[in-house]
Design a protein that fits this description.
214 residues; alpha/beta; Rossmann fold; 3 domains; 7 helices; 7 strands; 38% helix
Length: 214
C-alpha cells in the first residue's frame, strides 16, 4: 500500500492523536478514514450555507452580501479544516471561570491552544450546575454573581461558546452509565454525541470524552 507523508504543527499533531484515541484507532487509520470520507462522492443535500459564528447571519463569497452564499461541505468549518465543538463539563466550566479553582491554569492553557475551527459549548445542565456550585464552593459570593460571571465568560471567550439544545431523556443514557455517580457524565456524553460535540472533562475514565491536558 502506498505511503503518504505530510507536515503538521505540534498542536495539530496533538489534536489528531487525541481524536484518534477517542475513536480507538491508530493515527494512520484515523487519517485514512477521514481522507476516504472526504474524497467520496457528495450526495445532494450534503452542503450547507456558512454562517458567522457570532451573528448567525449567512456568509457570502468575497465577504460581501453581493456575492452568492458560501457553501460548506458536511463537517467543514467556516475557517476550513476539522471543526470540533467541546462541551465542557461543570468542573471544567467552573475552572475556566474562577482563578481560585485548582485547575484554572490547566483549563485556561488548553483553551488558548484552540484554533478558530474549534468552539466551546455549554448546556442547561452545566450552566445551572455552574450557578449552583460556584456559591456553594465559595468561588462566587452568591447566585447573582455566578450568573453574571457565566454570562461574561460566554460572551467574551474566544473561541466562542454555543449552548447545545438538550432534549434527551433517560432512554439516551449510554450503557456504561449504570451507577448514580455516572448519570450526569453519561447524559453529557450522549448530548455531545447527539449534537456533534465531544464532552471535555478534567476527569479520567469517562468513555468517549476528551481529557483536558495537564
Amino acid at each position: 500500500m502506498p505511503t503518504i507523508t505530510f507536515r503538521v504543527t505540534a498542536r495539530e499533531a496533538a489534536q489528531i492523536r487525541q481524536l484518534a484515541r477517542t475513536e480507538r484507532l491508530t493515527v494512520s487509520e484515523f487519517l485514512r478514514r477521514r481522507a476516504v470520507a472526504a474524497a467520496g462522492p457528495r450526495a445532494a443535500g450534503e452542503y450547507r450555507i456558512a454562517r458567522d459564528s457570532l451573528t448567525g447571519l449567512p456568509m457570502h463569497d468575497g465577504g460581501s452580501a453581493g456575492g452568492g452564499p458560501r457553501l460548506l461541505e458536511a463537517g467543514q468549518s467556516v475557517a476550513g479544516g476539522l471543526s470540533v465543538t467541546y462541551l465542557l463539563d461543570v468542573n471544567a466550566l467552573l475552572a475556566l471561570g474562577h482563578a481560585a479553582h485548582v485547575h484554572h491554569g490547566r483549563v485556561s492553557r488548553w483553551v488558548v491552544t484552540l484554533s478558530p475551527n474549534q468552539m466551546l459549548a455549554t448546556c442547561s445542565i452545566t450552566e445551572l450546575s455552574f450557578v449552583r456550585i460556584a456559591p456553594q464552593a465559595r468561588l462566587s459570593p452568591h447566585v447573582g454573581a455566578a450568573r453574571d460571571l457565566l454570562a461574561q465568560i460566554v460572551a467574551s471567550m474566544r473561541p466562542p461558546f454555543v449552548r447545545l439544545t438538550d432534549d434527551l431523556g433517560v432512554d439516551s443514557l449510554p450503557s456504561w452509565a449504570d451507577i448514580p455517580a455516572t448519570i450526569t457524565d453519561g447524559h453529557l456524553s450522549a448530548l455531545g454525541a447527539r449534537r456533534a460535540a465531544q464532552l471535555a472533562t478534567l476527569d479520567q475514565g469517562i468513555p468517549d470524552s476528551f481529557l483536558i491536558p495537564v
